[in-house]
Amino acid sequence: MSEDAVRTAFPELEAIEDDDLRAGVIDAWVTAIAENDIDDLTAVPWLPPTQRELTLNDEYLVTHVRDVTACAVALAETLLERREGALSLDMDTVVAGALVHDVSKLAEFDEMDETAVYSLLGHPYYGVHVVARAGLPVELAHVVLSHTSRTTVEPAIIEAELVKRADEIAAAAIRWRATDDLRTV
Q1: How far apart are CA 35 and CA 38, in angstroms?
Q2: How far apart are CA 7 and CA 53, in angstroms?
Q3: Which residue, 16, 28, 135, 173, has most beta carbons within 10 Å?
Q4: Whole-structure pTM value
Q5: CA 18, CA 178: separation in Å to the nearest integer?
Q6: CATH code of the domain made up of 3-184
Q7: d(CA 143, CA 138)
Q8: DSSP 3-state helix, strand, coil percentages of the chain (rounded to 5)?
Q9: Domain assignments of the chain as residue spans, ordered by start
Q10: How many whole angstroms from its chain centre is CA 181?
Q11: Cα angle at 125 between 122 and 131, to 5 degrees?
């Protein structure tokens, strides 16, 4: 799968102003796609164990990543507007971090089945590896590592916190389709 396929799947890449950072995010996805023999990025499921539990077979990773990116950007823009001059954050890190936060899922699942990466390493360690191999800044590896409760790493930078919260909201929106009480899933 090519760079063009990644650009098509994630048009939000164009919001990353730094050309090298954008290229690194694309490279991370292209590498993960190649290493995991993904033929169609848009067909990769969002989170198979949860999807099975909730009977939500029509949720996909690309849609989730795009939702997380949109939510993280909206949160960041709101805070920048409301705290004008009092808050410093890097929008490129927000967008890039949101775009790579779940790149590890390409290695964690083979269609709807968990792989050893998921069961032995867990989410999101492969993603940190991919981000590092792509030469992306350590801040993006931190976003990947701290966005989930499957690690003990808490967000240390505002950009990581924004992606973590955006991911939680986007996942809740998916789960909401199958339940009338989010506390049950």
Answers
A1: 8
A2: 32
A3: 28
A4: 0.96
A5: 39
A6: 1.10.3210
A7: 9
A8: 65, 5, 30
A9: 3-184
A10: 25
A11: 150
pLDDT per position as a tens digit, 164-176: 999 999 999 999 9
Q: Is 145 left (phi over 0), alpha (psi -120 to 50) or beta?
A: alpha
**Per-residue model confidence (pLDDT) at position 85:** 86
Residue 103 has pLDDT above 70, yes or no: yes
Residue 94 identity (one-letter amino acid): V
What is the 3-state secondary structure of 48-83? Answer: HHHHHHHCCCCCEHHHHHHHHHHHHHHHHHHHHHHC
Q: Which of 147, 171, 175, 180 is nearest to 63 (CA)?
A: 171
Amino acid at 139: E
Q: Do 174 and 64 touch, CB atoms closer than 8 A?
A: yes
Query: Which pLDDT score, from 0 to 100, does residue 21 have?
Result: 98
Taken in order 5, 11, 17, 21, is the CA torsion positive or negative?
A: negative
Q: What is the pLDDT of residue 155?
A: 97
The Cα–Cα gap between 84 and 73 comes to 16
Number of H helices, E strands in the chain: 10, 2
What are the angstrom distances between the C-alpha of 98 and each of 57, 92, 132, 177? 23, 10, 16, 23
